[in-house]
Amino acid sequence: MTKQKTLILLFLLSINHSFSQDDLLNELKSETKTDSSYELPAFKAVQIGNLQSTKIAGKGDFFFIVAHRFAPFSDGIDNFFGLDDANTKIQFVYSFWDGVQFSLSRDSYEKTYSGAAKFSIKKQSSTFPINIVAYASSDIETQSKTSDFPTLEFKDRVSITAQILASRRINKNLSLLIAPTFVRQNNLQQYIQTNDSNLNRFIVGIGGRMKISKRMSINADYGLNLNRHEDSIYKDPFTIGFDIETGGHVFQLVFTNSRASNDSGFLTRTRGDWFNDVAFGFNIVRVF
Amino acid sequence: MKSLFIILLFLSQNIFCQKYYTRTGNTEFKASVDAFEPVEAENKSTTVILNTENGEIASLLLIKAFRFRLALMQEHFNENYMDSDEHPKATFAGKIHDFNMDEIVSEKEYKITGILNIRGINKKITTSAKIIKTGDQIFLKSNFSVKPQDFNIKIPSIVRNKIAKSVIITIDYELSEKK
């Protein structure tokens, strides 16, 4: 009988022990079925350098972006290596709903006003390999004067860009992006200057980001023009950049052959030669 | 003898299965500094389990489920501070001292000790909690503070004065009997 009692006592003790804190925790862990994995975003800023990234402002996020593009370094000391001339773009980005962002901007390059919208279609996750985003922008150039171009109509000032942006965060440090792009270039000035009648342009944008520390990365983007006229004076845009992010700011330092930073401008109308006409620029993103 | 064990097993299961539980516990933290943007977030999907027989308590939450006012701040939090891809969960396992179901018909304050695990790092926490049973539910409220460096969270110098040295964690759980 005493043996039996001891057994029962031991039994009770063992049960008591089996409900210790760790077991409570294990019970919770086994009941937490929701996907606990966190997918790192592919890009931190809405642009890689000049090219759009798959980053979309979160609902209620308000970004204020100031972009400068200076003149080429090749201007030399007389122009302080290009810093005497600057195109400034001021841009506001806002998101009313999750996965949708709108933006308005004004670029001093050809006094261009732009409106753009960006929509998230699919996000990279454990079940889907890439981020897919749709992007469209329209740029309205207001520099041309009817006194210079008597037949100028409003539609001649409007150029449209449509892009599908597909990106993948390959690993913790490397993200890549490809952007099939269509640009309808209606700009009258450009038509007269180049005799390039090919106003429907197809471009493949490619870009990437390599993180070099938690808050710094090296970025690059390139726009491969597929059907530019062979006598065109324009070149493919190429941008190398360096991002520094702090809490509410992202500083993007860029080196580019493009003077425009609006989409149709830099994608189809970059004049600079990458070796001789590289210019410094920056985008400062401030979040409110 | 064998049947006695089986009966005992059932009995003991019953006795030791007095558990209260929630999946929608509210956990908040505040690391705000006056005059700067508020750095605070709320997690409304904390799971908590309480063994009312012995006062043992455990909770678990997903770091990515903390909601900030600014989406970008949330992204920074997950990517740069918490490394949520590597450490998706935070847990607590501890004990409410001298817990007694009969005492909590009116609000009573208890001492809680236990181990908080964030980013895979354990830290011993001692705090007090106000507990009351109303109807079928047990309400548990508490707060305590932790330091980011306790969990090897590095704050870069550029934002150091915008993030509080000590982070206040506030919990508010409504537990129902686990069937």
UniProtKB/TrEMBL annotation, chain A:
InterPro entries: DUF5777. SUPFAM superfamilies: Porins. It holds the Pfam family DUF5777. Residues 43-288 form the DUF5777 domain. This is DUF5777 domain-containing protein.
UniProtKB/TrEMBL annotation, chain B:
PANTHER family: PROTEIN YCEI. It comes from the Bacteria. This is YceI-like domain-containing protein. Residues 57-174 form the Lipid/polyisoprenoid-binding YceI-like domain.
